[in-house]
Amino acid sequence: MTFILPIGPQHPALKEPEFFKFEVKGEEIVDVDIRLGYAHRGIEEALSRRNYKHNIYLAERICGICNIVHSTTYCQTVEQLAGVEPPERAKYIRAIIMEFERIHSHLLWLGVAGHQIGFNTLFMLAMRDREHVMDLRELISGGRVHSATNTIGGVRRDVRARHLLTILRGLNKLEKYAKYYVNLWRSDRTISARCKNVGVLCKEDAIKFCAVGPVARASGIKIDVRKDSPYGAYGALSFDVITEQEGDVWAKGMVRLREILESIKIARQALKELPNGTLRIPVDLKIPPNETVGRTEAPRGELIYYIRSNGTDTPERVRVRTPTYGNFASMKSMFVGGTVSEIPIVMWSIDPCFGCNDRVALVDSRTGKTQHLTWEEIKRRHP
Amino acid sequence: MNSKEVAELIKAHISDVKIVNDRCLFATSDREKFKDLLRTLRAAGITHISTITGLDLGDAVDVIYHFDCRPTMLNLKIQLPKDGLKVPTITDVFPGAILYERDLMEMLGVKVEGHPDPRRLFLPDDWPEGVYPLRKEFKEAPK
Question: ipTM exceeding 0.90?
Answer without folding.
Answer: yes
